[in-house]
Predict the 3D structure of the following.
Amino acid sequence: MKHTVFAVLLILSSFSCFAKSYYFVGSHFPAILEQDQQGTVVGLGADIAHEICRRLGHELVIDIMPLKRALKMVEQGHADAIIGPYKSPMRQQYMQFSDLPFYEDSIVFYTKKNNDVTWVGNFASLRKDIIGTIRGWNYGPEFKRNETSLSLSEVGNVRASFLQLMYNRVDLILTHPRAAKPVIDSLDIADKVIMLSPPVTVNQGYYGFSKQRELDEFIDAFNAEFQKMLINGDIVELNSKYGLNFVAH
């Protein structure tokens, strides 16, 4: 009996040596990362991260904060990872992205129904217009190539961007439908705004791990578990749970 108890304690002790606690951050992204009425962090990004850490035997803490602060936390090594960032060359300098994305967003223009705005997929047609953008967002390579020739008005969040549009401070705004819908509903402006096509770009959201932390083994294990969840359909199913469309790559 003593030998059995000792063996169990040895196994538990060995397991605790490998179990770790990780700290993820992110900004409020509808369906991806948000807080419910009880203050619990929920969303697709949180669900996947918690499930992977559970399978690996690790604990996970997630905090929500403004995007620029979350990015800085990862850049400086104060957080292990950020949930949901789009990939960009600048961000790749200080974070290692997960092998695969876990959601997709079409970046599109919104404008007021009575605005005389022409968008045909060519930024040259918008040189006379003021475009509302959101601080810290990545709008794709084509926008990046043209932004110096555009008139931009940057704000901190999607709601502020739509308010700029409604008060005629901008002619159109750039965002994605996932973030736009709850704001449009809360402001009761569905009959006042329209979404333009074609999309400016399609962004994919990843997990971004800090290069300032020693995370190589954890990142490999995280990617391996994510791959399993992708193959067995868990990732696509979780996207559907939150009303998101995702094509397994």
User: Anything to note?
Assistant: Confidence is low (pLDDT under 50) at residues 8-17. The longest helix spans residues 2-18. The chain is about 35% helix and 25% strand. The CA atoms of residues 32 and 43 lie 5 Å apart.
